[in-house]
Please model this.
Amino acid sequence: MYYTVDTGKSFESASKDLEAAVKRHGFGVLHVHNIGNTLRGKGVPFSEECNVFEVCNPAQAAKVLSADMRLNMALPCRISVYTENGKTKMGTISPEKMLGMLSQDAGLAEVAREVEEKIIRMMEEAK
Model:
């Protein structure tokens, strides 16, 4: 269900490189949530770093929404860059498995597989 990779890069460098890889693969970054800063800003002690990138390929998203508008709740895809015990990692939840739990549409399964392959490539390039 989860796909994670370790990187020897700093949190900042991995975040920057992931954003560039996302764009190279025809996806857009809709928003980056800096979870670590948000928690610390609310007075919650949190020592790790975590950026959650909301990414989307408009053509693929349109295919999903045209088939089943309820799937808007599963969009956009998310890729995280985070630290854990001093190591920088990247991760995502498998679009193919997640969509498979929400829909039995074979066409959507193919879309999810294509999106997942690209997300994995992005993460591998950026690590």
In short: The longest strand covers residues 77-84. The chain has a mean pLDDT of 96. The two ends are 20 Å apart (CA to CA).
